[in-house]
Amino acid sequence: MRSAAIIFKNKEAGILTQHDDGSFVFRYHDYWIADATKQSISLTLPKNRREFYSEFLFPFFFNMLPEGSNKQVACKLNRIDQDDYFGLLMTTAKNDSIGAVRVVKIDE
Q1: 3-state DSSP call for residue 97?
Q2: How many Cα atoms are found within 13 Å in the side-chain-facing hemisphere of 62?
Q3: Which part of the chain is the HipA N-terminal subdomain domain (predicted)?
């Protein structure tokens, strides 16, 4: 199991977890839900208390991944399998990404 903090506008909004079977769960933090000034990170992941489950990486996060030659270079330089989308996401979206969302690995 691997987990990453989802940072929205430099504040931690929730946790994205990949289970050992390859499925994913995203959950907002309770304090994010309770604060009416905080918005959803995506239209496809609306702000509520339930966990979002998917058998594959949520499209919102998948669309943050590099493609083509940029993906090949990122995978080679960071020694990441090209099919390890979550590993690639945690590596490439931790410091700088297009938009307000960053993905930061949680060390366990």
Answers
A1: coil
A2: 10
A3: 5-103
- Which tokens is 44 given? 């496809």
Q: Maximum distance among all alpha carbons in the chain?
A: 42
Structure confidence at residue 14 (pLDDT)? 97
Q: Is the pLDDT of residue 108 over 70?
A: no
Residue 104 β-bridge partners: 5
Residue 28, φ and ψ in degrees, nearest 5: -75, 150
Query: Are the beta carbons of 47 and 28 closer than 8 angstroms?
Result: yes
Total domains present in the chain: 1
Structure tokens at 26: 């995203």
pLDDT in tens, 36-63: 999 999 999 999 999 999 999 999 999 9
